[in-house]
């Protein structure tokens, strides 16, 4: 039941006032904050359907003012999100920033941008998340809520708001994401024969035969690639960097050194020799600090560039729908092929840099089966060169 507006006395200067605003169809509560340096009066307003609701909001506002908050009552969700996007993502990979900006613009700002941050209620956010859950994959939904939470947290650190209402809501279950795929053994052989002598072929060999993440390959330098064997030592690479913030790897266990199959070492040796020749022809000095897979300007390649070149390679390999594949599925295939060959889950988890076996089991469960043996040796045996067969359909995990 809506409260009937009553005509009350006019508030004296410095007092709070509550009145009915016909144009907004709401009660308005106003509190005086003194005067600005130019002599204009500062008044902050709150809105509600009843006087009781407005009085509560005025009490909350005063507590915030007593806590030293500096933000005006009209601080919007859009302003908070834009502030976080501008100041809270420093040092992040450009691709990550692009993703955050896209999700923020298309979902948070588009739906909630005009809402006053102090008036945002948990019930409103619950309803919003439920509507998003019907159209967004679960991982995307999780990121959208994270953007809102981090934006409000960013405002909290600047004394602009007390309560982070986004911390009070639960994440609903979003839509299932696109299932990961794994190359069959025949497909893997076809992929390893395609575009030989190019950088994308060397990139694919390293991802498929060693299981390196694409975010770890793109910043890889030659100083971390050890292809020459000494004594009984096998060739190996140091996976110590990624394109993540500050160059950190995804987890502590992701920072690791991995032995390489001999065929991977041979491909990288040939790739390095071609790169050195290109530098020499261009009159440039080559060093071990150079990127293994640089873009034409010498910087790291973007994930989009790598994905486009991968799909071109898959087309050459005879795949009917190369656009259905992503770069990360080379790593999925690495795990699946090792599992099919009999490697135990604990070893696979260690090789791919998972902090435990849970992620390995969750993501690759349908391909896993327990038994024996270790990474590089297994790949030398699984994917011996020159075993031609046409690629068939991929098995969805």
Structure description:
- This protein has 397 residues and is mainly α.
- It has 3 domains: 17-66; 77-168, DNA polymerase, domain 1 (Orthogonal Bundle); 181-396, Intergrase catalytic core (hpI Integrase, Chain A, Orthogonal Bundle), CATH 1.10.443.10.
- It is 44% helix and 9% strand.
- It is built from 14 helices and 8 strands.
- It has helices at residues 51-66, 77-87, 94-112, 122-133, 138-157, 185-193, 199-210, 214-217, 262-281, 303-316, 328-341, 345-352, 357-364, 375-382; strands at 17-21, 26-35, 41-48, 181-182, 225-226, 236-239, 256-259, 395-396.
- The protein has a 3-stranded antiparallel sheet, with helices on one face.
- Helix 2 (77-87) crosses helix 5, helix 3 (94-112) crosses helix 5 (138-157) and helix 7 (199-210) runs antiparallel to helix 9.
- The relative contact order is 0.10.
